[in-house]
Design goal:
197 residues, two-stranded antiparallel ribbon, 9 strands, Chalcone isomerase, 7-stranded antiparallel sheet, alpha+beta
């Protein structure tokens, strides 16, 4: 049986499909950063829930790992889960500190009420101050945000604690919503952190 020649539109559709599958495979690929499978946070053992890579357009921005006391697979579970949590990051490109702080603040504002934003203005200012304290994060450098119940959120740069804990449970929930809120920074990253990729 003689095959009909492919039309330009069918060739285009096949190309788009192939590119889409390739992009999906690339985004679902393991991170270049090796994250520890478990971590001790203030005497509590946390497990690596999931890892992923933050993309902006086609560029890799940072690798990220979510550590929790037990496995969670939905955004609601992450936010409601009691106990300590940790967000671990590795920069994959040069990241200006001020820009990073502002992006985090924007993500919090996009997923929180005005009242919450106002209520936690001091803690948010501290977040910006921590990252603005470095002119830039270089590829391979790490930073982290850790929540300890009864103490607050602790920021780390290159493994060193940056000042005293700030905020309360609600503030860290706002931080989590940057990635797990209704308007997450990156939906594919969110799914990877939840182990859904």
């Amino acid at each position: 049986m003689k095959r009909r020649p492919a039309t330009p539109s069918s060739r285009l559709a096949a190309t788009v499909l192939a590119l889409g599958l390739a992009a999906g495979a690339a985004l679902a690929a393991p991170t270049s950063t090796k994250f520890d499978p478990a971590m001790d946070v203030q005497g509590s053992k946390l497990q690596l829930n999931g890892t992923g890579t933050r993309y902006r357009a086609i560029f890799k921005v940072y690798d990220m790992g979510l550590y929790t006391t037990r496995k969670v697979s939905t955004s609601a579970e992450v936010i409601a889960l009691p106990g300590p949590k940790r967000l671990q990051f590795t920069a994959l490109r040069e990241l200006p500190g001020t820009d990073l702080g502002r992006l985090f603040l924007k993500g919090m504002g996009d997923n929180s009420t005005k009242e919450q934003v106002q209520r936690h203005a001091l803690s948010s200012a501290r977040l910006i101050e921590v990252f603005s304290g470095r002119s830039k994060m270089l590829p391979g450098e790490s930073f982290a945000m850790e929540f300890v119940p009864g103490k607050g959120t602790i920021f780390y740069i290159l493994g060193k604690q940056q000042g005293n804990p700030v905020g309360d449970d609600e503030f860290f929930a706002m931080v989590l919503k940057i990635w797990f809120g209704e308007s997450p920074a990156d939906m594919q990253l969110r799914d990877a952190l939840l182990g859904l990729e």
